[in-house]
Structures are given as structure tokens and as C-alpha cells.
Amino acid sequence: MSTATAVAVTGAEGFIGSHLVEALVASGRRVRAMVQYNSFSSHGWLELLPSEVMDCVDVVLGDVRDSGSVRDLVADCDTVYHLAALIAIPYSYRAPRSYVDTNVSGTLNVLEAVRESGIPRMVHTSTSETYGTARTVPITEDHPIVTQSPYAASKAGGDRLADSYHASFGTPVVTLRPFNTFGPRQSMRAVIPTVIGQVAAGERKVTLGDLRPTRDFTYVKDTAAAFLAVGTAPAERVVGRTFNAGTGGEISVGDLVRLIGTLMDADLAVLEDPQRLRPAGSEVMRLVCDAARLREATGWAPAHGLEDGLARTIDFFRDPAHLARYKTASYNV
């Protein structure tokens, strides 16, 4: 492991994490990347990054649920980006304790390590799911927290811990709350890769859940840029605060499917799969972001429109080597 001052990223092997690692290296930083320990020695999506990027990355196998792993990861770093989380909403109905262990207790371990080590900046990752169905739109950071799934509740618990550590100990933490991020490398538990992956595999009857909910979809490179923005902005502008990151636009799942069909030149029929439906009281029907606070504090703004981001994502899934990594015919919980 390099002894040079680095930034640490938990959840680095994941969808957003791998893009953030790429962006950090492009900005000139060396990255200490925590990958969840596994017996396959897999580095997840980091394995797709070019060698010139990985030359600036020190991969550390560990687990945020283990406090020792986290202390070793953050030692001598100047910024910690905490992205490690269990994220699939359907699986949170089956295994809620696992979400508490990772998203709450794991976040506690990161906060404790940052506090003990005197790290100058920690960026904690929240989610727009903590807002529940929009009561007012667009959603500002002052919107009530309404947790409609065990996943959302666990993420809100981590958020409250981050707030409490700043209030109680002055821990220099900032919370970023991305809305629905999409792009290359996303898992098929999310709607956009589910649709694109099925179409790229030759399907014209796409299997989905509820088509009514609306979402604010943000391209992953813009979300990564938002992480960099709050991680590097002057402390007085961001520390102790929560920031939404989203485009301010919204589209229903049904209209999204039609748009993807147009972009992929495919006439699609949608089949409803009951197992893909959330419980009625758990479905978040509308999310649309107000990112004015983030823009005012850091100057961040999304650089990619929905169609541009979808086109880039389609190109990724049309690569046979990438598509082969996915199980397009299965329901990915």
C-alpha cells in the first residue's frame, strides 16, 4: 500500500464507487479503495478500469462492518468518501437486519475511524429514497424524511448518525443525497439497466414492475462530480450540511421505457411481473430534485441530459463482454 497521502473510498468496487474512483484519479488523487472481502478476490467494477487508472489505486479488501478494517483504510488519508452500502430495496424486505448492520453500524464504524484519526473531511452517502413519495416538488433538503422501506430507514439512520457526530464531536462530515443515478456498470436491480439489458439481449417483451412512479435520473459521471464537489469545497461551505444531487427533471417508468425503445430502435411490450412490485405502502411514487443548495455552495451542475446518458449506457450494454456480466433473463433482487 502506498504511504503517500490518499483519499479513501468505501464501496469502491460498486457502480457509483468505481466511477468516483475514476474521477478522483482524473483529478490527480491517489485512491485507497476498499472492496468488500470475498473469496473470489474480485475487485468488482474496478476490474474494468484501465491500467493507467488502477496504477493510482491501492485496493484494500475489507468490510465496513469491521471497525479494524475501516481504521486501517482511513489512516493518513485527507478525505474519506463513504459509499459502501446494501442498496437493493426488494432485498431489504427479506433481510432488514443486514441493512442495519451495513448501512447503520458500518457508517458508525466509518464515523468513529474518521473521528479518531482526525480526518479533515468525510463525505457520507445518503439517498433520495429517504424522502419517500414527494409531498412538495421539487424536493429540497428540508423535505420531511419518510422511510417507506427498510433500506430507506437504514440509510436515514446512517444520515442521522452523521449529523449527530458533527453536532456532538465536530466531525467534519458532509452528506450527499443523490437522486436516481444511472449509467454504465449499474446492477440490474435498477430499472434502466433492467430495460436496456433485456433489449440488448434481444428481448422485445420487457418484464418490469410498476410503470407509474416518476424519478429524477442523474447520469453517473454527474453524480461522481457532485461527490468531488462536496469533497473539495471550502469547509465553511459544506461541512455539517446535507446536499441533494439531481437534475430537477422527472420521467415516469412507463415513459422511460418508451424512450429507451426509441433510442434502441425497438418496439417494446411491457409485461408486469408481480414479484417486481413493491408492497403498496412502500412504493415511492414521485421523486424530483431541487439541487439549488449544492449549486450555490459548490457550483455543481449536471453536464449530461437524460437522452445523452441513456445513449452512453446503451453503448455499454451493447458490448457483448459487458452484457455477459449480467443475468438479463432473471429477476435481480
Automatic annotation (TrEMBL):
Name by which UniProt lists this protein: UDP-glucose 4-epimerase
GO molecular function term, any single one: carboxy-lyase activity
InterPro entries membership: Arna-like_SDR_e, NAD(P)-bd_dom, NAD(P)-bd_dom_sf
A Pfam family that the UniProt record links to this protein: GDP_Man_Dehyd
Stored CDD domains: Arna_like_SDR_e
Domain NAD(P)-binding: 9-312
Entries under PANTHER family matching the protein: DTDP-D-GLUCOSE 4,6-DEHYDRATASE-RELATED
